Amino acid sequence: MAKKALLSIDGQDPIELPILAGTEGPEVIDVSSLTGKGYFTFDPGFVSTASCESEITYIDGNAGILLHRGYPIDQLAEKASFLEVCYLLLHGELPNATQKADFDRTITLHTMVHEQLRVFFNGFRRDAHPMAIMTGVVGALSAFYHDSLDINDARHREISAHRLIAKMPTLAAMSYKYSLGQPFMYPRNDLNYAENFLYMMFGNPAEDYEVNPVIARAMDRIFTLHADHEQNASTSTVRLAGSTGANPFACIASGIAALWGPSHGGANEAVLNMLDEIGDVSRVQEFVKKAKDKNDPFRLMGFGHRVYKNYDPRAKVMKETCDEVLAELGVGDDPQLKLAMELERIALEDEYFVEKKLYPNVDFYSGIILKAIGIPVNMFTVIFATGRTPGWIAHWNEMISGSYKIGRPRQLYLGQSARDIKPLGER
């Protein structure tokens, strides 16, 4: 017999509410019938609300678990490439050798962008934030690739997914090159996804650029570890935009806009800004003391996580990657990186941080890696968006492929009751 919850309201018969159970996670009370009975639920930030059903990602913040289609994130980051994870998110299973080769080839053949997009970039100021450019350019893709925008056609959705995954690193690199006034670099079909991104970022027509395999592997892991994270603010935004029937390029642009916020995608950028504020290793203890003081507004960025109340499962792999990159580049003497490593040491050993489980998270390590590679801070969120694109697309496609309703949250109205307008002279 199905479980039910009883909602008791004074003077009324109890209201029966079905209790739903997923594969993993807590049971969910279905309150969708309350509207017909004259009630809404009140849940600011939707923190206690399941807005949809999904088979893509599962998170248990208390246990430090992150699964994509059932696979633990650390295993995916260590044993699979980013494009394999993209395939997994889109199709539900990891590819076999033939499927992987076909998918890799398809993405490679879609990495170039329409030549007129080069002209489109000229409409932006050179000092524009790369995320501002990305929001505009990705949204504009529907004006260049309008041959496959029928969202009710599975093949059209697949083509759009391939185009978005393939072109995001190209557009990301173009936004960086544009800010420098350097020529755009065309992608190369002999390079893999991460290698191509690094080549387009740091290469130039005047000389050959050889991609460092250690750095390429690190970039691939960064993309993988950001591929999806359940119903976060940007993913929910993509779903909400998609529920109107909007085209996939517009939906992903809305996700990029939501990700731009400092409380979401700007976390690794905030880590570097915090390191700038501390300034020197000699001041670490001073700022650690400030972080422990409840009355001090200073907060250590990159430690702890809103969802993970234990260790961030992505952080272990990212720490290993961070150590590999710093060793490969030999940048251990960089003052900012030395400062970061000292903060990490304290956080892992200090009783205060251990007790409160304020461990370094994925943003802490990814910020350090990107800094070491030479990627400017204002590009950090762009790289986050590039990695998160397959997750956004997977959620959008999952919704469009099934039955869905247009998103329409309600409100607890606290404004004026109905009233009449007085003549101008009587107000």
Commentary on this structure:
- By secondary structure, the protein is mostly helical.
- It has 3 domains: about 5-50, Rubrerythrin, domain 2; about 65-265 and about 390-400, Citrate Synthase, domain 1, CATH 1.10.580; about 265-375, Cytochrome p450-Terp, domain 2 (Orthogonal Bundle), CATH 1.10.230.10.
- The chain contains 17 helices and 6 strands.
- It has helices at about 75-80, 80-90, 95-110, 115-120, 130-145, 155-180, 195-200, 215-225, 235-240, 250-260, 265-280, 285-290, 315-330, 335-350, 350-355, 360-375, 380-400, and strands at about 5, 15-20, 30, 55-60, 65-70, 70.
- The strands form 2 sheets. A 3-stranded antiparallel β-sheet has the order 1-2-3, with no helix packed on it.
- Strand 2 and strand 3 (about 30) form a beta hairpin.
- The longest helix is centred in the middle third of the chain and has 27 residues, at about 155-180.
Give me a quick take on this structure.
Helix content is about 50%, strand content about 5%. With about 425 residues, it is mainly α. The radius of gyration is 24 Å and the shape is globular.
Strand content: 5-15%
Poorly predicted spans = none
Q: Using the 3D structure, state the CATH architecture of the largest domain.
A: Orthogonal Bundle
Distinct helical segment count? 17
What class do helices, strands and sheet pairing give? mainly alpha
Largest sheet properties = 3 strands, antiparallel
Share of helix among residues?
A: 40-55%
**Would you count the extended β strands for me?**
6
Please list the strands of the largest sheet in the order they lie side by side. 1-2-3
Radius of gyration: 24 Å
CATH fold-type name of the largest domain: Citrate Synthase, domain 1
Query: What is the distance, rounded to the nearest whole angstrom, between the alpha carbons of the first and last residues?
Result: 62 Å
Order of helices and strands: EEEEEEHHHHHHHHHHHHHHHHH
Looking at CATH, the homologous superfamily of the largest domain is Citrate Synthase, domain 1
Averaged pLDDT: 93
Classified by CATH, the class of the largest domain is Mainly Alpha
Number of domains: 3
The coarse overall form would be globular
